[in-house]
Amino acid sequence: MQMHLMQADLMQWNFMTVGTMMRGVTENELVDTWRDLLGRYHSTWCALDRELRESHGLGASEFEVLDQLTESCCDKQALRMQELGKKVQLSQSALSRVVARLEAEGLVFRALCADDRRGIYVELTDAGRERHAAAAPTHRTVLAANLA
Amino acid sequence: MQMHLMQADLMQWNFMTVGTMMRGVTENELVDTWRDLLGRYHSTWCALDRELRESHGLGASEFEVLDQLTESCCDKQALRMQELGKKVQLSQSALSRVVARLEAEGLVFRALCADDRRGIYVELTDAGRERHAAAAPTHRTVLAANLA
DNA sequence: GAAGACTACATGCAGATGCATCTAATGCAA
DNA sequence: TTGCATTAGATGCATCTGCATGTAGTCTTC
User: CB contact, 8 Å: B31 with chain A?
Assistant: First the structure.
């Protein structure tokens, strides 16, 4: 693995001409892929955050959490922070705070779990379900517009 | 491939009930695409930021700017903020501050442009070129590891 | 069952971001 | 020329983020 990387780097060097940014095909592809990803992500995320905030008072992260809660645990829509964390692209601390914000807005509530008293269940409230339902179309529309 | 996805989505449809997330096939694909994008972006960006910062004292945004400067304007490697902004996924204000940080570290300098005195040229210093050259392999390696 | 390692979540803190706004320069119209 | 709209870039501000750490509960080993 390490060997492969080094060999690849050597090959790329061989194809480089000094002033003109040439890099090996593989490496260029990689960078292009990354830039493309970065561009798509950024414009979509920003649009999402702006629209959701403006129309529904939700940040993109907040919606992401609501969305996962709606989708998971079909009947009770409760998840341990732990589980939620695996489904959402947020650090543990960021998730903790997003949930705190959602709770402050009454969209979610925390419940201790009896079996492991370190754990916290996060559960949607009715208001949370409603807000999510209201915001989902906006979310999908923005995705459609940006990822077409 | 496409077919497989659609079949999977169809199955989801069959299991869906009215209150619980029913939406069209296309829409599901869209959301899946977005989640995938989000996941790739996040892990890659975080790894990039961590590694570059630790090994070369550069944030991911700083590297991005250095990278674009290295690549553009092949001979003098100077770009107007404006142009730089189009190539980089940062708001105008964020870019302004990244450049300020880079300048404070001596990796870049700002120059007024005579023809339009509102404009600012950003130009790499030798130190900037060196730092970029040193960091680029780390950058490519992280990309390779995360976007494989 | 006591001590120490480990896990789940919260929080202090420093830093980065975007939005709105400010300043200065340019361009256009009368 | 004067005046107004526009553009380039900087900056104040609120907010969000991750890292490091703190606190409380659990598991393991003796």
Answer: yes
